[in-house]
Write a structure and sequence with these properties.
With 469 residues, this protein is mainly alpha-helical. It contains 15 helices and eight strands. A hairpin with a 2-residue loop joins strand 7 and strand 8. The chain is rod-shaped and about 160 Å long.
Length: 469
């Protein structure tokens, strides 16, 4: 308060040896215009329109000098006022004395946390008149060393004596320089941003996430495909094709037996000419093992994407990956139901084999009929015509043998061809289903994770920009 009066050039504040002498903020005002709303916002009720001081301030300066309570007084309310004001004012002038300039309370609670505010901070060592002249500079150097350890090595440190007026002009000049330059507000805001960035870095940590890689997406897709029973569907595609091939190219005398075997795709409600009309499959619902596998795949993907990220951000990335886990099994089932497995497509070779099979059967039946007629004529003691022969073999016998052998050969050949085509169709179905599963994974797992990873990169970039000023 005594230094406040000395700088103001008038006895505005009450100064006394016994502390605390100031219980609430007091304002010395040079330039009344616009000061009332500002002081109302700062909750400063004690206001004094100060007299002009040559070379320091007058009505046109626009300066408000606040005298705050002692922060280390016996009144807790005084400390609360100081803590509030420190976060609001443009420039901070810390007044210390030779007896307590190294007090841990002011350094640890105020100066060190405000290390980023060096550009808008002044430190005044008052009462230097109490020191022998030879000790003034060593004490000031000691104070500068402590401030440097607090991160305030570039702060201006002034020695003054409010009682004798020593150094008061230098304090006035330092304050006036800040006022005239009109940079205090922007410097204070920049310091606040820098401090906030340091606090955020301390809380959230540093580091970027590894992000989403093509290998991790492929691994996620593979695991979700297994959990969604894609291998079951692929196997059903192959078996369904082989079954249909047997129905269409097998030996006509026995192929009808295949009709008693159920189509695997039809049992799964997947044999449709228009898959887009299907909403659900008849695959077994996801049980505990499938859900466990799905959760493990999502967790593994999130862990890989969040590697290197600070703890809070790792949790955010994992949470984003797991947001849609409840709806994931149904979404995968619908994706499988809507995938065109091309199961209704016919193969051109079916028609060729079918025609030849029927011709072979008709040939065999023709041979049987011929022999039957000959046997009937012989039975009724009627003349039996001579049967044509080929290399000594009766033609009817050759017709029967040839038809049966050709039919069996075609049936076996059809099975081999059908197995190869079935495997090819199963491979194409696997690719189509994998694409469908990948689309679901992209929308419900990958994209939310990528959003969080991008947010982290933007956050870190903003922190760097803020710290750089």
């Amino acid at each position: 308060s005594s230094l406040f009066n000395a700088v103001s050039g008038a006895e505005i504040a009450t100064a006394a040896a016994r502390r605390p002498t100031t219980s609430e903020p007091l304002a010395g005002i040079w330039g009344a215009e616009g000061s009332e709303p500002l002081l109302d916002w700062l909750e400063v009720r004690n206001r004094h329109h100060a007299v002009p001081v040559d070379g320091f301030a007058d009505e046109g300066t626009g300066l408000i000098l606040l005298d705050l309570p002692d922060f280390d007084s016996t009144r807790a309310a005084n400390r609360e006022i100081v803590e509030r004001m420190v976060g609001l004012v443009d420039v901070l002038v810390w007044v210390l004395d030779p007896q307590k300039y190294a007090d841990a309370a002011v350094h640890n609670d105020f100066l060190k946390p405000l290390a980023a505010h060096g550009a808008v901070t002044l430190v005044v060592l008052n009462q230097v008149d109490r020191l022998p002249e030879r000790d003034v500079e060593p004490v000031l150097e000691s104070l500068k060393g402590i401030l440097a350890r607090d991160g305030l090595g570039k702060v201006q440190v002034l020695g003054a004596s409010a009682l004798r007026g020593t150094g008061v002009d230098r304090v006035r000049s330092a304050i006036r320089t800040v006022v005239v330059q009109r940079q205090a507000l922007s410097q204070r805001l920049a310091a606040d941003v820098s401090r906030a960035s340091m606090q955020l870095r301390q809380v959230s940590g540093e580091g970027d996430a590894a992000g989403v890689s093509s290998s991790s997406k492929a691994r996620l897709t593979d695991e979700l495909a297994v959990a969604a029973n894609v291998p079951v569907v692929v196997g059903a595609v192959a078996r369904s094709y082989r079954l249909e091939s047997t129905r269409r190219t097998g030996w006509p005398a026995t192929r009808w037996l295949v009709r008693f075997r159920a189509d695997p795709l039809r049992r799964l409600n997947l044999r449709s000419a228009n898959p887009s009309q299907l909403n659900r499959t008849s695959l077994p619902p996801a049980g505990a093992p499938e859900r466990a596998r799905t959760d493990a795949a999502v967790r593994e993907f999130a862990d890989a994407a969040s590697e290197g990220a600070p703890g809070p951000w790792r949790a955010a990335i994992r949470g984003a990956a797991r947001e849609g886990r409840e709806a994931l099994p149904d979404a995968l089932d619908q994706a499988i139901a809507g995938t065109d497995l091309m199961a209704a497509r016919k193969s051109w070779w079916w028609g060729v084999f079918n025609v030849i099979q029927w011709l072979a059967l008709l040939t065999a039946l023709g041979g049987l009929g011929w022999l039957g007629v000959l046997a009937g004529l012989a039975y009724f003691q009627m003349p039996v015509p001579e049967v044509p022969r080929v290399e000594g073999w009766p033609v009817p016998t050759l017709m029967i043998a040839g038809g049966v052998v050709l039919g069996i050969f075609l049936a076996l050949t059809g099975k081999f061809i059908g197995a190869g085509v079935a495997n090819a169709r199963a491979a194409r179905a696997r690719k189509r289903l994998r694409v469908a599963v990948a689309d679901v994974a992209q929308g419900m797992v990958v994209e939310p994770v990528e959003v969080e990873v991008t947010r982290l990169k933007s956050f870190n970039s903003a922190l760097k920009s803020a710290a750089a000023g």
